[in-house]
Amino acid sequence: MVKKVIKPIKIGNRVFDFSRVYVMGIINLTGDSFYPESRTSLDEVSEIAKRMEEEGADILDIGAESTRPGATPVDPKEEAEKIRSAVKAIREVTDLPISIDTYRSKTAEIGITAGANMVNDISGLKFDPNMAKTVANLKVPVIVMHIRGTPRDMQKNPYYDDVVSEIKMELERSIKIGIDAGIKRENMIVDPGIGFGKRLEDNLKIIAHLGEFKKLELPILIGISRKSMINMIMPMDVSERLEPTIALNAIAAIYGANIVRVHDVQENVKAMRMVDAILGVK
Fold first, then answer.
1. Which of 124, 219, 237, 245 could lock 174 by a disulfide, CB 3.0 to 4.6 Å apart?
2. What's the CATH number of domain 20-279, 1.10.10.10, 3.10.20.30, 3.20.20.20, 1.20.1540.10?
3. 43 Cβ partners below 8 Å, 6+ apart?
4. Residue 186: HSE in the Cβ half-sphere, 13 Å Cα cutoff
5. Burial of 145 (0-12, 13-18, 19+ CB in 10 A)
6. Nearest to 38 by CA among 64, 20, 14
7. Global pTM?
8. CA nearest 138: which of 166, 99, 174, 82?
9. What φ, ψ does residue 266 adopt, rounded to 5°?
10. How far apart are CA 221 and CA 8, in angstroms?
11. Which residues does the annotation mark as catalytic?
């Protein structure tokens, strides 16, 4: 169990002091997300956002491009327009902080201008050379994630000599890119990127050694929800992976995760409150 004080971060009009584990709800505006039940249309997005808020979500994460293994990029204009429309629709029903899941600076800018509050970049500010400066200019927090390769090729024979130290080093590089562009360090959240260019054994080591990432002294986000690593441990369809997801998120939170990114908000919120109770014991 790792317990370390992390500086509070303001996302939208809310302050996250990391005195508990926060839950980020996933809203997919894609037609090919790996979990079919999570696919959302613009007609449904405000209803889903309101439901997630009622279920206890702390942040909503909106994406309009699938980043599953083998996924092909979408048209940037289509991505940006979906994000703009979704953010405006959600803003009519809730003031929850909204994160934009994109690696494109233009989409990020459009999303934030429409009313979103944070950027979630799977590339760790590395795919789009303008992303870091854009985030700095927008003065919003950013999640920097680790990925090897791109979504299209990331699962083609990934290999690490020391997965934890290598990812930590690459996250430090992303942090430096951000700081050099003018992003404040205290406005960054790190994500080691479960499933993004990793083998099963790599994913398990990341979770078991989250304490090493605490040395970056930044909040840690973990995205495990219903991912294929669960099927590799115990074969099951994506529709059956709720309980394993909750188990992995609870373990990750005890080991140091500050935010869990999930498809199933209500169930994970209940689990995280139990984790909070354990972590709160003096």
1. 124
2. 3.20.20.20
3. none
4. 10
5. buried
6. 64
7. 0.94
8. 99
9. -55, -45
10. 14
11. 227, 261
